[in-house]
Amino acid sequence: MRIAVKLLFAGERQLCDQIFEGIASLKDQCFAEVTANSVAVLLSFGEAIAKSKRSPEKLFVLLDMYEIMRELQPEVETIFEVKACSEMRESALGLTRHLAQTAKETFGDFEEAVEKDATKTTVADGTVHPLTSYVINYVKFLFDYQTTLKQLFQDFKPGDDSNSELASVTMHIMQALQTNLDGKSKQYKDPALMYLFLMNNIHYMVRSVRRSEAKDLLGDDWIQRHRRIVQQNANQYRRVAWAKVWFLKPNSAYKCPSSKMSCIFVQIL
């Protein structure tokens, strides 16, 4: 698209201006007729992508195309500024809007897919679930498109803080992941493994955010809040795991009051 607009169409415009210099209506009509089919083919390809079935992986293709169309918009408006080219100009702008809308809807689809992921396979040792690593890598990849995403959000809500919008979207994705992990943790019959699973996965989320650009958007409050959740699950894991040890003791130890038992756990840990 860049080559077509910057070289081919710009060259055709210049050639028509030179050949039909002084005859404005003729040079504009000639340029429109010469470029109409080529423009239609290029835009139809973009429309086909925008109309195709949405999937998380296609979001990056949509963002690439949206970024190119936004970049070329000033040149499209200049090259096709005459009345004879108004339909082509509007079609190009329409494609940009369509790509933006589809990308925005794909965001929503991804968040919903994460929250409702129904994978029943549990991680035997309570380590990081494949869904967690997939979502985190996806979010990291999204931040390679941070400038494009901010522009996209700005197009939908002019005047709003695009940083806040991107932060909100990222938080929703993270919350969807955490909700799903909570559900997956309940598949463990062993409570100790359940807490270990939550501790490992949320710790992975926190560590990944701290090492990425997402840290600046989500902020220290998000990180500290989720570190506390990690610690809570770690404490619960230790409590349940040590309980198994105490239950192997003679009956006298087994009958210790719960408050006393808690004190013993604290001292041991």
Automatic annotation (TrEMBL):
GO terms for cellular component: exocyst. It holds the Pfam family Exo70_C. The keyword Transport applies. GO terms for molecular function: phosphatidylinositol-4,5-bisphosphate binding. InterPro entries: Cullin_repeat-like_dom_sf (IPR016159), Exo70 (IPR004140), Exo70_C (IPR046364). Signal peptide: none annotated. Residues 1-246 form the Exocyst complex subunit Exo70 C-terminal domain. Keywords: Exocytosis, Protein transport, Transport. Gene3D superfamilies: Exocyst complex component Exo70 (1.20.1280.170). GO terms for biological process: exocytosis; protein transport. PANTHER family: EXOCYST COMPLEX COMPONENT 7, EXOCYST COMPLEX PROTEIN EXO70. Belongs to the EXO70 family. Component of the exocyst complex. This is Exocyst subunit Exo70 family protein. It comes from Phoenix dactylifera (Date palm).
